[in-house]
Amino acid sequence: MATEPHPQHYFVTDPSLPEKPRQISVDLRGREVRVRTAAGVFSPGGLDKGTAALLRNVPDPHGHHFLDIGCGWGPLTLAMGLADPEATVTAVDVNDRSLELTRRNAQTHGLTRVETYRPEDVPEGRQFDTVWSNPPIRVGKDALHGILLTWLPRLAPGGTAWLVVQKNLGGDSLQRWLGTVLDEAEFTIERAATDKGFRILRVERAR
């Protein structure tokens, strides 16, 4: 798998790297799909190990409104959309190149209910029944905490978020932190699985 030579590029709005588009095939929960990727986004060479671990361990998304935090070129967005094409999938990223790739990949696979946004542009008041995310750990702890505190409170009643975090990059400490900042009367946080060094965390909001 190719690696991103300048990982900081996928944390900016407009990457300065030449795009260098490519077509790749990936397996998304048993579906082999052809997608477009490019330099300057997360894991342009294929499905990264964390996202693959998440997809192996999550149940099918439930509800009508889904969220992908940090969509990259769109693997989680596509997997949710293919699981339920009638649901609305909101794909969020700070990287405009990522958002364009996710839009194009969704269109290629006939997913008409995928919507892509920068974080600040997501419609106010929109709540989500299912959240899948391989959150951007390398933005730093404070920025990561800010991202999670922006989106997890937007879980709808009965909604569930599934997060994948590498154990040696703080998966266990992140679980503990979530338990201190989310209202324990409203949210349940648990480690749902461990998969090849990755923690799969489940956050559920009470009905």
How would you explain this protein's 3D organization?
The protein is 26% helix and 30% strand. It has 207 residues and is an alpha/beta fold. The strands form 2 sheets. Strands 5-4-3-6-7-9-8 form a 7-stranded mixed beta sheet, sandwiched between helices. Strands 1-2 form a two-stranded antiparallel sheet. Strand 3, helix 2 and strand 4 form a beta-alpha-beta unit. The longest helix is centred in the middle third of the chain and has 13 residues.
Q: How far apart, in Å, are the first and last alpha carbons?
A: 41 Å
Rg, Å, rounded: 16 Å
Assembly type of the chains comes to single chain
- The shape is globular
Encode the helix/strand succession as letters.
EEHEHEHEEHEHEE
How many helices? 5
The secondary structure category is alpha/beta
Count all strands and give the number: 9
Summed over residues and divided by their number, the pLDDT gives a mean of 93
Main beta sheet: 7 strands, mixed
Question: Helix share of residues?
Answer: 25-40%
